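Ex. 9. Protein: Dephospho-CoA kinase.
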Amino acid sequence: MANFIVGLTGGIGSGKTTIANQFSELGIELVDADIIAREVVEQGTTGLSQIISHYGMDILDSSGKLDRTKLRSKVFDDEQERQWLNNLLHPLIRKQMLAAVKNANSPYVIMVVPLLFENGLDSLVNTTLVVDIPPHEQVARTAKRDGVNSTQVEKIINRQISRKLRLSKADAVIDNTLPLEEVRKTVQLLHSSYLDQASTA
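Predicted structure tokens for Dephospho-CoA kinase:
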């Protein structure tokens, strides 16, 4: 089991996955909250059956899987529904993430969590790493990637903690507007530092 956990986070569209994959190339195992969030609502899970009993069968697509777009539209502007869903899913995600960390074999683990600080999951990690880009770039990158309009992206950004607060909570920051080579160098330096810290953890 890896005793040392790095919590990697950043605003939407900041390039968390790209950075996480660079650590993965260095042999470090990733525990990705977004992937686990999908796993806890797969067919046959407690998560999905509770969502069905709350919203009814029409929350499913034609193949019997959760229709994420429908679910998103039900909770996006309804604080009460969003709270209900979070209360259901967060404990399930947290439990599965910790199990994945326990089974990891690399010297340390990167936990990729978009809402690391918002959901208090920084309490589970030894150190935090923030991937940072300016808000106007977040909007442009996400709108292009997801094929959505900038207003929708801005709404999502406003749901997350402010850039200033996120940076103030970070133990380390990667400026993802720098050239790729610079970013790779930073990852390499952080990797060496995390190996050192993990060996004494």
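Check your answer against this statement. The chain has a mean pLDDT of 91.
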